[in-house]
Amino acid sequence: MLSIYREANREKRGDAVPDRFKEPWKLAHPPVEAGPPPNVLPWDKLEADVARAQTSLDERMREVHEEYERAFHTYQSLDDITGGDS
């Protein structure tokens, strides 16, 4: 894509193109530092947080299921209310 831009630029210019147009473009790679990035939780703390979240999720799912079962067993079917057969 850069070569397309540079070629179009060459065609439209009245003067010489900059020397940098002759150089291939290179993506600069940021330095890689040893260790985790700043503000990252230690692995054991992260695992503990995930375990607590999973336990909480399991408990909420159990509560929802229990409430569903309670509602299901107290629900009156249409047949029970009308006394008729479907």
Folded structure, characterized:
The model has no long low-confidence stretch (mean pLDDT 84). The protein is mainly alpha-helical and 86 residues long. It has a domain of 39 residues. The longest helix is centred in the C-terminal third of the chain and has 32 residues. Helices cover 56% and strands 0% of the residues.
Helix proportion range: 55-70%
Q: What's the multimeric state?
A: single chain
Question: Proportion of β residues?
Answer: under 5%
Q: How many H/I helical runs?
A: 3
Task: Give me the secondary-structure category.
Answer: mainly alpha
Blueprint (SSEs and pairs):
Elements: H1 2-12, H2 43-74, H3 78-82
Give a short synopsis of this structure:
With 86 residues, this protein is an all-alpha fold. It is built from 3 helices and no strands.
Observed structural traits:
elongated; single chain; 56% helix; mainly alpha; 86 residues
